[in-house]
Predict the structure.
Amino acid sequence: MTKLRLQILTVSTRLQRKGPAVAAWFLAQAQAYDAGFEIEAVDLAEQQLPVFDEPRHPRLKQYEHDHTKRWSEVVERADAFVFVTPEYNHSMPPSLVNALDFLVQEWAYKPVGFVSYGGVSAGTRSVEAAKMLVTSLKMMPMFETVSVPFFTRHLDEATGRFDPGEVHDKAARAMLDELSRWAHALVPLRRAS
């Protein structure tokens, strides 16, 4: 089976964020489990996208700005995604909304999984809000998710290492299996578009 590319996106861009530690844990899970993906880590903070500023609608794919062209190339090369996301005000971070809004065609017919983290709600409201948005971009959100409540209990502040334990390791593998199935199943739709 051909290896497809899975991008693991750290979506929080604020200072003092903990998303990179959570993303590093999931990246290690994906590499160790080997669900048939070539894996790429992407950090939205490094993309430095301004608030959406293209003059034309993104569905036209007629980008004027270099930052949009670079972002288009990053997203285009992926076959599947995992968004590592906290919850902001009972919803997803504005950085994720903005990153999604910049593009249309590049997201289409690709599956997306979610690793959410937070307090008691484990970032689940962020995921529910994101699922509504990604379906409008013709993405397929996975039912299987990894949700980590009280995530700071699993974060070693001295080393920055995040390890939520075996239950979450199993959830990660289940989501990776589904992502692989969907990514391969959607290849014909991506080629036809």
